[in-house]
């Protein structure tokens, strides 16, 4: 077909209302793989720009000081961008080859952005190479952080704090924070000084995730100082060690009856016998009497799952979830799960209201292995199978805290 014919066809297309095209744009973040489609829409005409911009700037990622300065200038030039930005990610990439500068994280970003971004819900500070040293900033830093009044979710990944006091100051600086996700954060000194940290108004956290963290008494102390844990509804504890049970028990006791959802996994190589002893000694999870769901990520030895279920002191649990990795699906590893003990634990009267015993697997598991898993679980868990509560499904692609 000739070029002239193509131009003629385009001119003869019906003119649709802007509202119709806006609905098409609404679908693009779901079905499109690339931002370039949204960019093309934004450049098509002025009528399409506002709707396209909502999705283009919903998540803003800044990786260096140059990005930060350019974004500040853009906010000054385009006053309509502020309500579009819902997520701010400060991520220093491994490929940069240079450590992040102090002024980028410690000084610049809150002072330059806090009052210009009044609608962001998620703030993410992370480093993809090594760990990012969060040095004690100037006092103005905390004042500026307090201006992020719209932030409800804070994600901290691969940060190294000088002390856990500084960690507590960062968490408590966001006045309306309700979700805290910490992954692989450290403090070489493992020090917390209560006298040096008195938050003006404790944040009311509802959800806390502590992933790949060496949980010590000082970590728990800083958390208890900056939030009334008695209001926490969800607690995710990843890769714990036996020696951490004592400290985690303090956190669980402080949450008490408010805790509704618990997710836990035990570090590889942990021996079952000392873990059982630690749980008995510290009355682990005994004070959490209102739990509605528990989720376990199992590693080498899954016998601890049945043991922990026996110790739970809640009669309101409706869902128990066990997460597998695909490579774990084998006869030997199902034996390690101790299904007989698991089936017996869930037959106790306190689990009379249990509606689902869910086994999750990741996306890479072949269909044949899924069927094998279903049949093996039916055979190994006859009581649960008889109650029709067994469910086998894929692990969700998004985390519980992601929009």
Describe the structure.
- The protein is α/β, with parallel strands linked by helices and 403 residues long.
- The chain folds into 3 domains: 1-56, no CATH class; 59-227, Leucine-rich repeat, LRR (right-handed beta-alpha superhelix) (Alpha-Beta Horseshoe); 230-355, no CATH class.
- The protein contains 16 helices and 14 strands.
- Strands 1-2-3-5-7-8-9-10-11-12-13-14 form a 12-stranded parallel β-sheet. A two-stranded parallel ribbon has the order 4-6.
- Strand 11, helix 12 (303-311) and strand 12 (319-323) form a beta-alpha-beta unit.
Essential attributes:
globular; 12-stranded parallel β-sheet; 14 strands; 403 residues; Leucine-rich repeat, LRR (right-handed beta-alpha superhelix); alpha/beta; 38% helix; two-stranded parallel sheet; 16 helices
Give the gist of this structure:
With 403 residues, this protein is an alpha/beta fold.
Unreliable stretches (pLDDT < 50, length at least 5) are none
Please give the CATH architecture of the largest domain: Alpha-Beta Horseshoe
The helix-and-strand class reads: alpha/beta
CATH class of the largest domain reads Alpha Beta
Rg over C-alpha atoms, rounded to the nearest angstrom = 25 Å
> What is the succession of H and E elements?
HHHHEHEHEEHEEHEEHEHEHEHEHHEHHE
| Counted beta strands | 14
Q: Which percent range fits the helix content?
A: 25-40%
The biggest beta sheet, please?
A: 12 strands, parallel
- The first-to-last residue Cα distance is 45 Å
Beta-strand share of residues = 15-25%
Roughly what is the average pLDDT, rounded to an integer?
82
Number of discrete helical segments: 16
Can you tell me the number of structural domains? 3
Order of strands across the main sheet? 1-2-3-5-7-8-9-10-11-12-13-14
Which geometry do the CA atoms define? Answer: globular
CATH fold-level label of the largest domain: Leucine-rich repeat, LRR (right-handed beta-alpha superhelix)
Protein name: F-box domain-containing protein
């Amino acid at each position: 077909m000739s070029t002239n014919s193509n131009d003629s066809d385009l001119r003869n297309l019906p003119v649709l209302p802007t509202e119709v095209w806006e609905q098409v744009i609404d679908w693009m973040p779901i079905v499109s793989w690339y931002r370039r489609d949204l960019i093309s829409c934004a450049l098509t005409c002025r009528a399409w720009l506002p709707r396209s911009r909502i999705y283009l700037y919903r998540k803003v990622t800044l990786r260096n000081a140059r990005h930060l300065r350019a974004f500040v200038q853009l906010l000054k030039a385009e006053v309509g961008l502020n309500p579009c930005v819902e997520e701010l990610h400060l991520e220093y990439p491994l490929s940069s080859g240079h450590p992040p500068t102090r002024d980028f994280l410690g000084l610049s970003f809150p002072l330059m952005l806090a009052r210009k971004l009044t609608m962001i819900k998620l703030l993410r500070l992370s480093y993809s190479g090594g760990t990012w040293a969060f040095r004690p900033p100037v006092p103005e830093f905390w004042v500026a952080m307090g201006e992020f009044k719209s932030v409800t979710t804070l994600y901290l990944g691969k940060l190294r704090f000088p002390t856990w006091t500084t960690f507590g100051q960062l968490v408590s600086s966001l006045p309306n924070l309700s979700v805290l996700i910490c992954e692989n954060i450290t403090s070489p000194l493992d020090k917390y000084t209560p006298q040096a940290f008195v938050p003006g108004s404790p944040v009311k956290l509802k959800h806390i995730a502590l992933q790949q963290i060496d949980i010590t008494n000082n970590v728990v102390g800083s958390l208890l100082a900056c939030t009334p844990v008695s209001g926490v509804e969800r607690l995710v504890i990843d890769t714990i060690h036996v020696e951490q049970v004592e400290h985690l028990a303090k956190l669980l006791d402080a949450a008490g009856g408010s805790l509704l959802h618990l997710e836990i996994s035990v570090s590889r190589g942990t021996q079952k016998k000392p873990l059982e002893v630690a749980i008995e000694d510290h009355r682990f999870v005994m004070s959490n009497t209102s739990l509605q769901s528990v989720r376990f990520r199992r590693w080498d030895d899954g016998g601890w799952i049945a043991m922990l279920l026996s110790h739970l002191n809640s009669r309101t649990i409706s869902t128990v979830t066990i997460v597998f990795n695909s490579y774990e699906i084998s006869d030997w590893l199902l034996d390690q799960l101790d299904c007989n003990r698991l089936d017996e634990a869930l037959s106790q009267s306190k689990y009379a209201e249990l509606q689902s015993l869910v086994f999750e697997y990741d996306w890479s598991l072949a269909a044949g292995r899924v069927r094998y898993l279903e049949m093996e679980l039916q055979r190994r868990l006859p009581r649960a199978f008889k109650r029709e509560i067994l469910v086998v499904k894929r692990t969700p692609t998004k985390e519980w805290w992601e929009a």
